[in-house]
Amino acid sequence: MTATRAETYSCLRRTALFALGATLALAAVPGALRAQTAPTGPIEITTGTSPGGTPDVLMRRAAKILNEQKIITNPLLVQNRTGGSWMVAANFVLSKKGDKNVVLCIAQPILTTPITQGLPTVYDQLTPISMFIQGDLVLVVQPSSPVKNLKELVALAAQRERGVKVAGAQSGSTDHMVAGLLEKAGNIKLNYVPFDGGGAAQAAFLGGNVELMTLTPSEALPLVESDKARIIAILSDTRRTEPALKDIPTAREQGYDVVWGQSWGLAGPPDLDAGTVAFWDDAIAKLVATPEWQASIKDNFLRSEVVPAAEAKAHLAKLHQEHLAVLRDLGLAKATPVQ
Amino acid sequence: MDALASLAQGFEVALTPTNLLFVFIGVTLGQIIGALPGIGPSAGMALLLPVTFGLEPVTALVMLSGIMYGGMYGGTLTSVLVNVPGEAASVMTAVDGHQLAKQGRAGAALSVSAIGSFLAGIAAVTALVFLTPALSAFALSFSAPEYFLLALLGITATASLGTGSPVKAMIAAMLGLMVALVGTDPIQGTSRLTFGSLELLEGIDFLPVAIGIFGIAEILVSMEQSQHVEPIRTRLREMWLTAKDWKDCRMAILRGGSIGFVIGLMPGAGPTVASLLSYVVEKKASKHPEKFGRGALDGVAAAEAANNSAAHGALVPMLALGIPGSASTAVLLAALVLLGIRPGPQLLTDQSDLVWGLIASMFVGNFMLLIMNLPLAPLFASILRIPYDYLVPGILLISLVGAYATSLSMFNVGLTLLFGMVGYLMIRADIPRAPLVLAVVLAQLMETSLRQSLMLSEGSLSIFVQRPLSALLALLIVASLALPAFTVVMSRRAARRARLASGITD
C-alpha cells in the first residue's frame, strides 16, 4: 500500500513540478509573447450546471481559494449558464473570441453533448488551459444483496437479460457510460433506468427500487457507514490509498477491465492569447499547491493531478476519443455533421 | 424528549446575535427574491453562495434557508398584486389572489397568505423536530410509479380549475403537455421538436410560460379596455381579515399545510405540485366551490400554506439522507459541501449543532416573516390604488427582466412575449390559463416517471397497482374521474325524470 501511496504522491508532485517547470520555461522564452499577462477586471468562470452541481461546487471552491490566497486578484465570478446540456455555456464562451475575462469550466458534457446530439465538437475550438481535478467512481449494490463482488454481479445479470436494474443520471451521463462499459466487459445486458440527475437516482436506489448504482466515493461512504449500500468495486486504475478506500478492489483486479472516472478543468475562449493562458497555468499550479485546496480534495476523495496547458489539448483529444468509443457502443453517438 | 433537548440546544445556537441577524437578512432577501419573477429562491440562494464564504457553517445555512422559505412568502406579492407569479409555487395563488385584488381585497389575500404560510411553516418545522428520521423512510417509499400517479392526479385535477367547462380546462392542459414535449427526450436523450435550435434543447422553461401567460396577457387585455378600467379602490378597512374570513380559512390552512408537508417530503415533487393539489382538495372540501377561480380566499390560504410547508418538508430527505428534495435544498447541500461538511445519513448525529440550529432558526425566521408581512400587506395592497395604466410599464419591465434572468438569454424574453400573446388569445377565447401552466410543470415529472416505471417493471403496468402507495393513488385518480361523471349522469337523470314528471302533469 505504502508503495502505491508514494507513487501517487510522487506522481502528483511530478505533475505539479512539471506544471511549474512548464510555466517557468514558457516565461523564459525571449520576447513578451510568452510572458504572463494578467487580465484586468473581473473574470467569469462559466459553468453549464445549475448551482450545486459538482462542477459548480468545484469551480466555486477553486475561485474562493484563488481569490483568498491572492493567487488571482481579479474578482472571480462563477456564472451558471444552464441549457442545452452545457452547450449554452459552451456557445457563450465560443462566442467570446480572444476575451481575456472569461473561461469555461470543462466537464464531461462539453465532450459528450456534441457526440450525442450530433453537433460540431467544442473542445477543439477552445483554448485549453488545464485539467486539474479527477474523481473516481465506485459501484454499489443494496446492503441486503447476495452480490458480494463484480463476478457475482455479472453472474446474476447473465441469468436474465435486463434482469439487473441500474439507476443513474440522464442518458449519456457518466453513470450510463459506466453501465455500458460494464455490459461490454461482462458480456451482459443491464436494465439502465435514467433519472433526472444523481440525487433522484440515489433516492430510487435508497428506496430499494434498483439493484445497482454508480456513485462517487464521497457519496458512497456515508451510505456504507449507515448500512444503506455496499461497495463492490472501484473503477480507478489502481486501488486508492486512503484508509477508507484501500480495501475496495478495483474492477480490473476482479477481472473486468472497467476503468472510468470524471475530470474537470478550465479552457479559454478561442484565440485566447498565450500570455493569459500562461497566467492561468501558473495560477492553477499555485492553487493545487495550497493546503486549503489539498484539504478539500482530500475531504471529497478527489484527486488533483494537473494536466498543464501544454498537454491539455492532447489530453482532451484522448478523452474525446474514449467518450466517443463508449457512446458508440451504447448506440448514443450521432455522426458528426460535415463541418 | 431527546428531540426537545436537542431543540433547546438548537435555539441556543440560533438565538446568538450573529445568527439572528443572518436569519433576518436571509428572510428579507427571500421575501424580495420571491417577489421578483424570474429569480426563484434556488437561484437567489445560489447567487448569494459566495457571500457565505467565511461565515460559520451554521450562520451560512440559516441565512440560505431563510431565503428558501422567505421566497415562499414573497412569491405571493406579485401573484396577488399584478398576476405575475414570483416563482413556480405561486401559480395557484395568482389564480384566486389576483381576482381578490381586483375586488379590492388584496390586503385580505396577502394577510391570509402570510398567516397561512406562518402556521403551516411552524407546524412543518415542529414535524421536522420530532419525525425527521421516521419520515425519511416514508419519503423513500415514493418512487417513479408514485410520482407518475401523483402527476396524473395533478393533470386530471386541472380539469376542475377555472370557472368554465372542464373540456376547456383539459384543452389548456393538453396544450401545456405539448409545450412540455419540446426539448430533449428525458430517457433516450434525443432531441424532440427543437428544429435544430440549441435554446430549445433543454425544453421550454416554466417561467417564461407563466410570466407570459399570466402577466403579459393580463397587460394586453387591460390595455384594450384601459379607458374603462377604474383604479381598484381599496379602503384600509377592507385590507384586514374579518372574523368570517378567518373562520373560512382555518381548515383550508390546516388541510393545505398537511398536504404540502407530505408532498414536500418526497424528493421529486415540490412546492408547486403541493400547492396545486391542496388547492384542488380545498375546492372539493369548500362550501362554496363556485367561488374558486373567481376569488376564493380559502383557495389562496390553502395554496400558500401548502407551498410553505412543502418548502420545509423538503428538508427531511436532505437532513436525514443527504438527498435534495427540491432545487433549493440542492443549493443548501452544495453550501454544506462548500463549507466542508459532507452531507449524508450521519449529518443528524455528526453535526447536531448545525442541524438543530438550522431547525430552531426556522421557527425564528417564520416569526420574523409574519411580523414583516402582516403590517406590510395593506401597504403593498395600496400599490393598486395607482391607476393600472401607470403600473403597466413597471410590470412589463419586472416581467421581462425576470424572464431574462432565468437563463441570462434573450431567447426566453422572446418566448415570454410569445406566450403573452397565447395567453391573450386564451383570455379572449375564455380558456382557463392555469391548467396550461401547471401542465408544463407536471409534464416532465409525469413523462419521465411513467417511462422509468415501465423500465423498472420491464413493461408491465401492474407496477401501478402492486405497490401499496401507488394502488392508493390509482384509486384516488379513478375516483376523481368517476365521481364528477357519476354526478353529471345522476343529475341528468334527475332532470329528465323531473321533465317527464312535469310533462305528464301538463
List keywords for this structure.
heterodimer; A: 339 residues; alpha/beta; D-Maltodextrin-Binding Protein, domain 2; six-stranded mixed beta sheet; five-stranded mixed beta sheet; globular; disordered N terminus; B: 506 residues; mainly alpha; 2 domains; two-stranded antiparallel ribbon; 22 helices; 2 strands
Amino-to-carboxy terminus distance of chain A: 50 Å
Could you name the ranges of chain B where pLDDT drops below 50 across 5 or more consecutive residues? none
Overall mean confidence score, pLDDT of chain B: 85
Put simply, the count of helices of chain A is 11
Tally of structural domains of chain B: 2
Helix content of chain B: over 70%
Oligomer: heterodimer
Structural class of chain B: mainly alpha
Largest sheet of chain A: 6 strands, mixed
Number of strands of chain A: 11
Largest sheet of chain B: 2 strands, antiparallel
Shape of chain A: globular
Query: How many discrete domains of chain A?
Result: 2
Spatial arrangement of strands, main beta sheet of chain A: 2-1-3-10-4-11
Low-pLDDT runs of chain A: 1-33
In terms of DSSP E residues, the strand content of chain A is 15-25%
